[in-house]
Design a protein that fits this description.
The chain contains 32 helices and 165 strands. The protein is mostly beta strands. Strand 128 and strand 129 form a beta hairpin. It starts with 21 loop residues before the first helix and ends with a strand.
Length: 1901
């Protein structure tokens, strides 16, 4: 038959799989060999009793029921009611009938098939006797031939029950809608499959080989999680599970898909690691050194090592080939496993550690048969005894047999005793007894650790005793409780041990059980009971603002004041919003919620009540007596105001009384007088003419006329207000200072009618008029008298008479002087010497005229001379600008040009002639400038004045010639230096490839180094500067100190070094060569700067020599254990036999090896080590032995001298071969000295090192695990689990570890999304440690508690939706509101949204519209805000105090229904007239405008009569106005900002003054003052010029600058002000940072750098530059031009002069005396030049031309020799640039009187007058020939202009050109020709042979 049941594996509470011992392994091997064939197994009948699927009753063999109609489970199966089996069979196919069927047979349970084929409960009974033709079953009633069945049954006799939905999976319908399910299925229709079977995560072609160890589950759970196949035989899972996807299963109540927690429901997942559930899956977290195996869903080791199969005397041996993991080695055949040098022992087989390591799979069979006795003798009998009463028979065998055996450790009698079962056992001490008494197998095969009154320990699960007592393993009982006979069944621990799972639910499982703890409880460490979770301990901050108190299964929070525990589900403390909870808090104030409390903030004028819950008004009047000192204090809500006494008025805030200034309020209060304010009143001071009343409040008039009748003499008196008036008679008037009426002087006061040209004479009471002289008339009308017309004047004849009004005037004529009565001629020239500037003044009668100098012309009236503007004439100052000067002109040449000798034009300057320009370049002169072309590798400087070599190169000091003609350079002394710095100093070559530097005295060298060696041109200024060789050539003076000097440098070498002349470096002096034999017999070693002697070994230096050292004498300890012999330079140790010389040769070492004994007892050495050692190693080790050698030599004691000699370094170290200290490695000499940890050798000792989490035991050589949990119970907040080398903290379900790894915190399952509340239409509510699914608002929980159903709020609460209709919705309800009402945002209330007018008064049910603000407001705001009526129909507001009012306004007046304040100010517009209505919480008050004060209720504003207050608010006059008052001030005062008091007008600060500087305000006026340094004159201030008044105020080195009101001193350059600021002192620039290279010398007002001779400091660059002698000594060259050169200068004379060194000036060169006269006809020397003469009859023209003409006459031109005849230009040339007339020679200096020096001015047209009739007689008109020898034959003369008609021509013959008449005869008239000289083929006119240009004017008659 098919083997359907799987082999079960039991999981202990600790979570580790319990594997079988040797009997179980034999059973497994036998099952594998005999049962498996293509996945099927077969058993014969003899084995039925061995299967747990059989049921044995009353000692019969158990029968496994199969087929249909089987009920119960596979462990307790039975035939369903109404069925039974055939004898000896195992199928329930025989129906059972309650009544005998007679001649029929029982075909169905309780239903017989009779002979006639009918079905009835019985057959053979007469139907009539039964009273019916049918026998009806199940309560059916007979109706003749049929039965009327009750509901739920059908059939002929109602024997067939009805299942409406049928029964699935082989189930039978046994009652109305009641199915009897076969094993493995359950549910109303048997639709739920709960068959248990193995789960396979992977399937291969060979089948299902990889079952998850210990996993037995349903097919649905297997296929929904990790399985791909399930059951025996295995069945493939569908590709996609239905109805939920993988990772989810349907909820048993709702059918909704919910996540499967694979980590909880699937045992064995993530073995070796930790399992973490995720939505729809899970994750495995493997520890370090492990990796996840997806096929086995477990963590496997990935670290491999060596496996040892033998353990001998604690040592690992017999290493296996290959690499093994820890599990492969220790679970198979290994005894030790190692990944490094220290092996690790495998855990003992059967131990807990072994089970944890090897639980994931059954270990392979061991390699040694003797480890499991009897394995080699396995046979049928042994199998039978091992398996119990069953025998195994091979396939095809027909043998049968029965054998019985008990399980009680070989005792044939079954132990059925009952005893206590204990859960804890420790060293014969039993603890934690379970209630009740149990058999030993029930106790020990399930959860017990010890049993019985004698505390008998239960056998270990891996021991043979355990398998004898519990053959089926843990969780299975082995014998019947009553009979004691073998009976293998699962122990239902939940029923057997009722004390299990306290505070939880126990769920039995096959071979085990599981506790599901109640909320607030968690499994204990053994998972057998539920312990309370101390939430307060694992999460101290769980309550927040409160203290936590743990309770069984929960906790409670004692919240701090102001906090309360949360909802029923959440218990943490949350803040109480007192303001929202109690709207009546903080009345008349503002409630502000705070953390844990609240705060009432009261408005101004309010304070908190004693209780602190409301604000109340402060009665300021009673709390302070000082308020309102001049009035009465009246308290109002939130403030107070003052009712002031007469003469006082309240302040704008109404909280004080101030004096009323009546004088300011009413300016005319005193009438004709001045008002003076006093406190609370005023007094009048009357003006003149008035007197004050007795109360001093008014001024009255005084009648002066009545008081003095004689007051007005010569007139009438009239009294006036405040004075009187005298009405005088005609001719009299009031006079100041005189009484009565006085005579009026009409003449004095101009009250007369006389003509303005008449005199007035006063007479008493009138006046008289008389005309002035020169006028005529009656005095009232006067006319002018014309004396000139009637000749009544006395003017002189040279003067003119001019009539004037009332007189006449005589004026001398021009040119005459006098008073008009007497006139004489005026000599203007004598009186005014400045007349006729630039001329001579000539006096004439009545005037003068001017005779002008040359260059000036007289004006038209000849009274002045005007300058002639020569520049306007043109043709002057070419290449320059002409500047007119008085009487002459001046040429200003452009840059690059200079004046020529004539002074009238500019010529180009040849800049290239100046050697300063274009240094090192080729200078090319250009018109007005020049070009500087630099040679190759040179660049033009930024100033453009020269070329400089800018290359940066490598500089070499040495050059060698090569065979190929090239050069090689060495001794590099500088990198990146300029070529000039290299080649102008010490460098011989430069560049890469290197090139030779130019040699001295070559043009290239002079160009590169114009200053010679040591100097170079500055790359910017070209000024020569010193080369700093030390800085630019750093490799000079290597090894020494380099010091730069001007033009050179110096090297200083240290002692022991000398300077090399070739390399300029400091080289070491080799003393060994200079002092040979100094160090014999040693070696002399030269050192840098010194030397030393190196002596051979055995010698030492003494006095510069090597002397032998006697080592044996100096070191007696040498050659220990030997003999020392000295020799020259060394020594020798002689060692005895058995000793060897050490490597150092200094001592003898004992190398003998022998036994090393570790014990010395009874005078004998014993227990030698396993290997021989030397005596040193034996006795000097850290663990020293007792003796050594054969015979045994005892090791010396530690403090003995022998020990010091043998072990000089003490224990743990021995002398090495070279005598040095050598540590003894105890770890290598004693293998295995440290167990479970590495041995670490230390210097002189060793120690055992344990890994983290382990510690050394008491021997300090073994490592044991540290149980951190027991050492520190406070490590973990909830539960601590000790692990190998560490520990792990865990939290109960619903909690997770915090980041600290010790404390717990709640897991928000709702945030994780793991609950399935949403699938059930519910909300997830996170709780402390768990969560709950709650119904949404508007939903209520169904009685089943699994789903939510809608709550009909409309039916449950009839008061909902007032003013509307309530309509229920799913989860809520909605209000359909009546008209005028609007639903709330949640649609759950109807708000009154009607708007209407609010009336403050209602008279006879009529609303007064005038009292409303006119704005529509809601009814609640109107009625609760103080309104009396509302709306268009005048709905009366409920009266305060009524129930209707309390319902509408539950919070009282001023508050709406919702407790919101009603804004009365917004509702009633007429509130607070003349003020501002300020709404307050629940009320309002008036903030009155200035000039108004609130009434007693503070709800209205009244005008304040400020002027009626006593005293008045104004200092002078006060006038009350509506809401205010006006004050006025007298003149000279200004009303202050308070508009009440008067203050003096400060003209100074208001800028209403005319002061220049300082204004000083006084009462009613101001005064001007001047600051120091100014002199005041009236209102003006004049500055005092201190600089002018005190010359030399700032000393000689500064100058005074006057400033307004003061002065300041400005020092000259090089001076600074001293501390007084009035004197200048010299600045010592040398004490400050300066740029002098060769020293600094301070000078007065400056400083100078010390420079070599010939150089001076540059003014800008602070360099030593060449001194410009020409500028310093202008007369150095006398009359010559001075040109500066580098370090010197030279003198250059003008052309025609040479410099005479002796005379120190220029000396004229006599060109005529030199060989080869320059002139053709005669030469006359002139200073700086010469003149060429012409033949007799010729005139000189220009320079070098001769002209003659037969038409020359005296009138053609002025006499050439006359100086006055020269033109202005000629005169200018003579006076400015030429020679004086005295110096111009007129005759030949050579005595040739035939040579003429007469000169024509070529600039003036030559005028010739010729008779046309004589033209034919003359040969020529003009004749031209050159006078210079150099021009002969080189030039010719041509007609340039004026000969267009060809009347004239020029003929050329023998160097002479003649102007002749041409072919066409000219007519009489004027002709103007221009004759010029032009160069011939070789003619090159230069500066001395200017071209001729002559204008000829011919007058032909």
């Amino acid at each position: 038959m098919t083997l359907e049941g799987p082999c079960w594996a039991r999981r202990e509470p600790g979570g580790f799989l319990t594997t079988w011992g040797p009997p179980a392994q034999i059973l497994l091997a036998w099952v594998v060999l005999s049962c498996m064939e293509n996945g099927q197994g077969y058993w014969d009948e003899t084995l039925k009793s061995a299967s747990p699927d059989h049921v044995r009753r009353r000692g019969r063999p158990a029968i496994i029921l199969q087929g249909p109609n089987v009920c119960g489970s596979r462990f307790h199966a039975y035939c369903c009611p109404g069925w039974r089996t055939l004898p000896g069979r195992n199928q329930c196919i025989v129906p059972v009938c309650r009544h005998a069927c007679g001649n029929g047979f029982c075909s169905q349970p309780n239903l017989c098939t009779c002979m006639d084929g009918t079905l009835a409960p019985s057959c053979g009974v007469g139907r009539a006797s039964l009273g019916c033709s049918m026998s009806c079953m199940n309560g059916g009633s007979c109706r003749g031939e049929s039965c009327l069945c009750q509901k739920g049954y059908t059939g002929t006799v109602c024997g067939q029950p009805i299942c409406v939905h049928g029964c699935r999976n082989g189930g039978r319908c046994i009652g109305p809608n009641l199915c009897a399910c076969v094993y493995g299925f359950m549910g109303p229709q048997c639709e739920r499959d709960f068959q248990m079977g193995p789960c396979y995560p992977h399937v291969s072609p060979e089948g299902c080989p990889h079952q998850l160890t210990g996993l037995m589950c349903t097919k649905a759970l297997c296929c929904a999680t990790v399985g791909h196949a399930w059951g025996l035989p295995c069945q493939l899972c569908p590709a996609q599970p239905h109805p939920c996807r993988r990772g989810f299963t349907p909820n048993v109540h709702t059918g909704a898909c919910q996540d499967v927690d694979e980590c909880q429901v699937i045992s064995g997942l993530c073995q070796g690691g930790s399992c973490l559930n995720t939505v729809g899956s899970f994750k495995c977290h493997c520890p370090a050194g492990h990796q996840f195996n997806i096929r086995g869903a477990k963590c496997e080791e990935r670290q491999v090592g060596t496996c040892f199969s033998v353990l001998i005397r604690g040592q690992c041996a017999a290493g296996l080939t290959g690499h093994y993991t820890h599990r492969q080695c220790c679970c198979d055949k290994g005894r030790c496993w190692a990944t490094g040098p220290s092996p690790k022992l495998c855990p003992p087989r059967g131990s807990g550690e072994f089970l944890r390591l090897c639980a994931q799979r059954l270990p392979l069979l061991p390699a040694y048969a003797d480890f499991f006795p009897g394995l080699s003798e396995v046979g049928s009998n042994n199998l039978g005894s091992a398996l119990g009463p069953a025998q195994h028979n091979h396939r095809g065998s027909n043998g049968h047999g029965h054998q019985r055996s008990t399980l009680s450790s070989g005792n044939s009698n079954s132990d059925v005793r009952l005893g206590l079962c204990f859960l804890h056992w420790d060293e014969d001490d039993c603890g934690i007894p379970l209630p009740g008494k149990y058999q030993m197998d029930v106790c020990c095969c399930s959860i017990g650790t010890s049993w019985g009154a004698e505390c008998k320990v239960c056998p270990e699960p891996s021991s043979p005793e355990f398998f004898k007592l519990c053959p089926q393993g843990l969780g299975f009982a082995s014998q019947d409780f009553l009979s004691g006979r073998p009976f293998y069944k699962d122990v239902n621990e939940c029923q057997v041990f009722p004390g299990l799972c306290t505070h939880g639910t126990c769920r039995n499982s096959v071979g085990s059980f599981h506790c599901s703890c109640d909320k607030g409880f968690a499994l204990d460490a053994r998972e057998r009971n539920c312990t309370d979770i101390d939430e307060c301990r694992i999460s101290p901050d769980i309550c927040g603002h409160g203290s936590c108190a743990n309770t069984p299964g929960s906790f409670k929070c004692d919240c701090f004041p102001g906090f309360t525990s949360g909802s029923l589900l959440m218990k943490n403390c949350v803040d109480v919003d007192e303001c929202a909870k109690d709207p009546l808090l903080c009345q008349r104030g503002t409630c502000i919620n705070t953390e844990g409390s609240y705060e009432c903030r009261c408005p101004p004028g309010h304070e908190l009540k004693a209780q602190g819950t409301a604000c109340e008004d402060i009665d300021e009047c009673t709390t302070s007596d000082s308020l309102c000192p001049h009035g009465q204090c009246i308290n109002i809500i939130g403030a107070f105001h003052c009712s002031c006494h007469t003469g006082f008025q309240s302040t704008p805030d109404g909280q004080d009384c101030v004096d009323v200034d009546e004088c300011e309020d009413n300016l005319g209060i005193c009438g004709e007088g001045q008002c003076t304010n006093v406190l609370g009143s005023y007094h009048c001071i009357c003006y003149d003419g008035f007197s004050v009343s007795p109360d001093m409040k008014i001024c009255v008039d005084v009648n002066e006329c009545d008081m003095n009748p004689q007051l007005c003499l010569h007139g009438n008196c009239e009294n006036t207000k405040g004075s009187f008036t005298c009405h005088c008679h005609l001719g009299y008037a009031i006079r100041k200072g005189a009484p009565g009426c006085s005579d009026v002087d009409e003449c004095e006061f101009k009250r007369h009618s006389c003509d303005r040209h008449a005199s007035c004479l006063n007479i008493p009471g009138s006046f008289f008029c008389r005309c002035h002289p020169g006028w005529t008339g009656d005095g009232f009308k006067c006319h002018d008298l014309d004396e000139c017309a009637i000749q009544q004047h006395r003017c002189a004849p040279e003067a003119g008479c001019l009539n004037t009004l009332g007189s006449y005037h005589c004026t001398c004529q021009p040119g005459f002087v006098g008073n008009g009565l007497f006139c004489e001629d005026k000599d203007e020239c004598m009186e005014n010497v400045g007349l006729c500037d630039n001329g001579q003044c000539l006096n004439v009668a009545g005037g003068y005229h001017c005779e002008c100098d040359i260059g000036f012309n007289p004006t038209k009236n000849q009274r002045a001379c005007w300058d002639v503007d020569e520049c306007a004439l043109g043709n002057l100052c070419m290449f320059g600008n002409c500047e007119n000067l008085p009487g002459m002109f001046h040429c200003i040449c452009k840059d690059g040009y200079e004046l020529d000798k004539t002074g009238s034009n500019c010529t180009d300057v040849d800049e290239c002639a100046n050697p300063v320009n274009c240094v090192n370049g080729l200078c090319v002169n250009t018109p007005g400038s020049y070009l500087c072309n630099c040679p190759q590798d040179f660049q033009l400087t930024s100033s453009g004045t020269g070329c400089v070599d800018t290359q940066t190169v490598i500089c070499f000091l040495d050059v060698q010639d090569q065979d190929d003609g090239g050069i090689s350079c060495s001794a590099e002394i500088g990198v990146g230096v300029s070529r000039a710095s290299c080649c102008c100093s010490l460098g011989r070559a430069w560049g890469n490839p290197c090139k030779l530097c130019p040699t001295g005295n070559t043009s290239e060298y002079r160009t590169l180094c114009p200053g010679g060696k040591g100097f170079r041109p500055n790359p910017i200024t070209l000024i020569l500067e010193d080369i700093n060789e030390c800085q630019e050539l750093p490799r000079l003076c290597q090894g020494g100190n380099c010091t730069n000097a001007f033009g050179t440098f110096q090297c200083e070498c240290p002692p022991g070094y000398s300077l090399s002349e070739d390399t300029h470096t400091c080289e070491d002096i080799d003393e060994c060569l200079s002092l040979p034999g100094t160090c014999l017999p040693g070696t002399c070693q030269n050192l840098e700067g010194s030397f030393q002697c190196i002596c051979p070994p055995g010698f030492q230096v003494q006095s510069g020599h090597c002397i032998d050292t006697d080592e044996c004498l100096e070191e007696p300890s040498l050659c220990f254990l030997g003999t020392c012999a000295n020799s020259p330079g060394t020594f020798q140790c002689l060692c005895p036999s058995g000793f060897v010389l050490s490597d150092s040769g200094h001592y003898c070492s004992d190398i003998r090896q022998s036994f090393c004994f570790t014990r010395f007892e009874a005078g004998k050495c014993s227990m030698p080590k396993a290997f021989n050692t030397t005596k040193t190693q034996c006795c000097c080790s850290k663990n020293p032995a007792e003796g050594w050698g054969e015979p045994c030599e005892l090791c010396p004691q530690k403090d003995s001298v022998t020990f010091q000699e043998l072990c000089p370094f003490g224990h743990g170290a021995v002398p090495g071969p070279d005598g040095s200290r050598k540590d003894v490695n105890e770890c290598s000499e004693n293998p295995g000295i440290c167990t479970d940890g590495p041995c670490v050798n230390t210097d002189g000792s060793f120690h055992c090192k344990c890994p983290f989490g382990y510690s050394l035991d008491f021997t300090s050589t073994s490592c044991v695990d540290i149980d951190e949990c027991s050492l520190n119970p406070l490590l973990c907040a909830f539960r601590c689990h000790n692990t190998e080398g560490s520990y792990l903290c865990t939290c109960p379900a619903g909690y997770t570890l915090r980041k600290d790894g010790a404390m717990c915190q709640d897991v928000d399952e709702c945030a994780d999304g793991s609950p399935d509340c949403h699938t059930r239409g519910m909300l997830c509510k996170n709780l402390i440690g768990t969560y709950a699914c709650i119904c949404p608002p508007g939903m209520q929980l169904q009685p089943s508690g699994e789903d939510c159903t809608d709550e009909d709020e409309c039916q449950a609460q009839s008061s909902l939706c007032a003013h509307g209709r309530c309509i229920n919705t799913v989860g809520s309800f909605q209000c359909h509101c009546d008209e005028g009402f609007h639903p709330s945002p949640t649609l759950t209330e109807c708000h009154d949204t009607r708007q209407g007018l609010c009336f403050s008064e209602v008279l006879q049910a009529m609303c007064q519209s005038w009292s409303s603000s006119g704005e529509a407001v809601p009814r609640v705001e109107c009625c609760c805000g103080g309104g009396r009526g509302w709306g268009p129909h005048c709905e009366l507001c409920p009266l305060p105090g009524t129930s209707a009012y309390r319902k509408l306004c539950p919070h009282g007046k001023g508050y709406s229904t919702k407790g919101q304040d009603v804004d009365e100010c917004h509702m009633f517009a007429d509130l607070c007239h003349h003020g501002e209505c300020i709404n307050s919480i629940g009320s309002f008050h008036c903030d009155c405008q200035a000039g108004y004060t609130p009434d007693a209720t503070a709800t209205a504003c009244m005008d304040v009569d400020e002027c009626s207050h006593d005293p008045k608010p104004c200092a002078f006059l006060c006038k009350n106005t509506e809401g205010s008052f006006l004050c006025a001030c007298p003149r000279g005062y200004l009303l202050e900002e308070d508009l009440r008091t008067c203050k003096d007008l400060d003209e100074c600060t208001s800028r209403q003054h005319n002061c220049q500087f300082v204004c000083v305000n006084t009462i009613g006026t101001f005064a001007c003052r001047c600051p120091p340094g100014f002199t005041q004159h009236h209102q003006a201030c004049f500055d005092d010029d201190e600089c002018l008044a005190q010359p030399g105020l700032c000393g000689t080195h500064g100058h005074c600058q006057n400033t307004p009101g003061s002065f300041r001193c400005e020092c000259n350059r090089g001076f600074v002000l001293d501390s007084s600021g009035h004197s200048c002192e010299d600045v010592n620039e040398c004490d400050r940072p300066h740029r002098c290279q060769f020293g600094c010398q301070n000078e007065l007002g400056g400083y100078r750098c010390n420079c070599p001779q010939g150089f001076t400091q540059h003014s800008q660059w602070a360099q030593c530059v060449d001194e410009d002698e020409c500028a310093l000594s202008p007369m150095a060259c006398g009359s010559a031009s001075c040109y500066n050169t580098l370090g010197s200068f030279y003198c250059v004379c003008p052309s025609g002069f040479s410099f005479n060194q002796d005379l120190g000036g220029c000396q004229d060169v006599d060109e005529c005396a030199e060989q080869g006269s320059p002139c053709s006809y005669g030469c006359a020397n002139t200073p700086g030049g010469f003149l060429c003469g012409c033949p007799q009859g010729y005139f000189r023209a220009g320079q070098g031309h001769c002209i003659s003409s037969p038409g020359f006459s005296s009138g053609s031109q002025a006499t050439p020799d006359e100086e006055e005849s020269l033109s202005p230009e000629a005169c200018y040339e003579c006076k400015i640039n030429g020679l004086s007339p005295q110096d111009r020679p007129r005759r030949s200096t050579h005595g040739d009187h035939q040579v003429s020096l007469d000169t024509l001015d070529a600039e003036v047209p030559l005028t010739l007058s010729l008779n046309i009739s004589h033209l034919g007689q003359v040969k020529h008109i003009l004749e031209f020939r050159p006078a210079l020898e150099s021009l002969v034959g080189q030039i010719r003369y041509v007609i340039a202009r004026g000969n267009n008609q060809g009347f004239f021509q020029m003929s050329h013959l023998a160097g002479v050109s003649s102007l002749q008449v041409g072919p066409g005869r000219p007519r009489p008239g004027k002709y103007q020709l221009e004759v010029v000289s032009i160069a011939g083929a070789q003619g090159q006119p230069g500066p001395t042979n200017q071209a001729l240009r002559l204008t000829v004017q011919l007058q032909l008659l």
